[in-house]
Amino acid sequence: MTAPTPYLHLPGTARDALSFYGAVFGCGVTVHSFADFGRTDGPAEAVAHGQLVDGPVALNAADVAGDQAPLRCEGLMFSLLGTADPATLRSWFTGLAAGGRVVEDLQQRPWGASDGQVVDRFGVHWLVGFEGTEDG
Can you list the positions of beta strands (E) in 19-96? Predict the structure, then answer.
């Protein structure tokens, strides 16, 4: 592993979130239920571990169990600055915004870069952007 990988603990929405992120980023998704892992501390169909696979973004997620606290995203953004070509980043921004909330539209900044912020429908805050123009 060469970089930290986000691991979201969600309130029973991990399967939906992973499917959503897989569709936005063009990744495959693997999911293992509590039953798959022999866990009895939550519903058998709850997600014990899931991840995005074979795509440009690494992300893991699971459903919380018992008295575990679910994700609350304050004072943190996941940055996708320059991680793909501008057209792909625009597509990701639009996808992440679906059912979420645009904090700042994706726009060109005075210093020449373009970026914007969105909080997706699962409460994750994303910063998406690229340097220069979309034409090169």
Answer: 28-33, 47-53, 60-63, 78-81
